[in-house]
Design brief:
This protein is an alpha+beta fold. The chain has 2 domains: 134 residues, no CATH class; 224 residues, Alpha-Beta Complex (Transposase Inhibitor Protein From Tn5, Chain A, domain 1), CATH 3.90.350. The protein has 13 helices and 11 strands. A hairpin with a 7-residue loop joins β10 and β11.
């Protein structure tokens, strides 16, 4: 039988080499990075905000010490587990202290991120005098692979990047941007609403009225309902935004209608193979037919066609609302034979401005890439607890805020 606890012959040298690299990083850059993190926590009173959201201790290791250690793990080449394995863990508390902090069922990480992002967005807005800038909200989701069978609510989903099925979560995120700086505002881990697609355990012993029950219910809510919910919470908290931008996965008539009622201009990409019909000149047409029957601009124009149509919102196959929208067709640089179609609920917005505002959606993709490559997005701690998985995302986004404003 193979002994998995036996170290290989070069284990000692490997550990020494890693510890040596850690020491060199500590001497050169780690102090500066940790000082920047400490200034960030103090400037925005993050520890006080955590206490207001449920993370407080009456005795023992202070919350600030634990949070600062977890926060600074992004500057370390090693996880807490590997630090303890090679003897580089020099804190005066144990790993159980850290996990108890992350597993705290009374800590509302969603509220914490929303309140912190509101404070930081006001700080960022105050740095510029551009009153003509139209701030935007961006909605998108990103996969978070997890394969543990004991991990709660791990589900099977289709990854459109790898074009295959994976196990894990999807992280639905609402972010704010001024075109330069991007700040994460709201998020939720998403699991499948179908029990047969859930690989991990489903706990039925949690009261749905508690915070733990609410975040699990949130995880199994549809993306479109959460998009509207997140946008409402962002506007209610005082975040300045007049536009919401998203991809074709969220461009559903009912979602667009609900967001428009929140006084948000919706700018979205439409699917080229969409079965959605629009009202144009008294006729019902889909976007392909609209493009075929209309006269296009010639030459190398930034956009080929612009039309004012009515978006039809239906309920039980009956039209309950007509929303005037502007549809803009522009050439696809990746494939000259295809085109891209954008929708805007602001019919007076110029075509070039619609294209420019939709271009802000790429900022959230850059945020996901940075968080996954450099900020240990969901990779700090291995635990089957849903609270730990939820906390890791909030901490990674908090680290991103530090990088965004420094």
């Amino acid at each position: 039988m193979k002994n998995h606890s036996t170290k290989p012959a070069n284990a000692q040298s490997t550990g020494s080499k890693t510890e040596s690299n850690y020491s060199s990083i500590d001497k050169c850059d780690l102090n500066k990075c940790e000082n920047a993190a400490a200034r960030f926590l103090n400037r925005f009173a993050i520890v006080k905000l955590l206490g207001e959201c449920g993370a407080y201790k009456e005795k023992g290791v202070p919350v600030k010490v634990i949070l600062l250690y977890i926060f600074n793990l992004m500057f370390s080449p090693m996880s807490m587990y590997y630090q303890m394995k090679i003897g580089a863990f020099h804190e005066y508390f144990s790993k159980n202290t850290v996990y108890r902090f992350l597993e705290n069922v009374h800590m509302n990480w969603h509220t914490f991120l929303l309140r912190l992002s509101t404070i930081i967005i006001r700080y960022v807005v105050g740095l510029t005098d551009d009153k003509n800038n139209r701030y935007a909200l961006i909605v998108d989701d990103t996969p978070l692979p997890k394969c543990g069978k004991a991990m709660e609510l791990v589900s099977k989903y289709f990854n459109h990047v790898t074009m295959g099925y994976e196990y894990g979560y999807r992280v639905l995120t609402l972010a704010w941007t001024d075109g330069v700086t991007t700040i994460p505002v709201r998020y939720s881990l998403l699991a499948s609403s179908y029990d047969e697609k859930v690989r991990g355990k489903i706990r039925d012993d949690i009261d749905g009225r508690t915070l733990a029950g609410r975040i699990r219910k949130l995880a199994r809510t549809s993306m479109n309902d959460l998009t509207v919910k997140f946008a409402k919470e962002a506007i209610k908290s005082g975040i300045p935004a007049s536009i919401i931008v998203f991809d074709s996965w969220f461009a559903v008539p009912h979602t667009i209608s609900r967001l428009k009622k929140e006084n948000l201009t919706v700018i979205a990409r439409l699917k080229t193979n969409s079965k959605q019909y629009y009202e144009y000149d008294g006729k019902m047409m889909n976007i392909k037919t609209l493009y075929t029957v209309s006269k296009k601009r010639r030459g190398k124009a930034a956009w080929k066609l612009s039309l004012l149509v009515n978006l039809l919102v239906k309920d039980n196959n009956k039209i309950i609302e007509r929303i005037p929208v502007k549809i803009v067709y522009l050439p696809n640089r990746a494939n000259k034979k295809e085109w891209i179609c954008l929708l805007s609920t602001d019919t007076e917005m110029e075509e070039n401005e619609i294209i420019r505002q939709y271009g802000k959606r790429w900022n959230i993709e850059l945020m996901f890439k940075c968080s996954k490559q450099y900020l240990k997005f969901g990779k700090d701690f291995q635990s089957p607890s849903f609270e730990v998985q939820n906390a890791q995302i909030a901490l990674a986004f908090t680290r991103y805020m530090l990088i965004a404003i420094e």
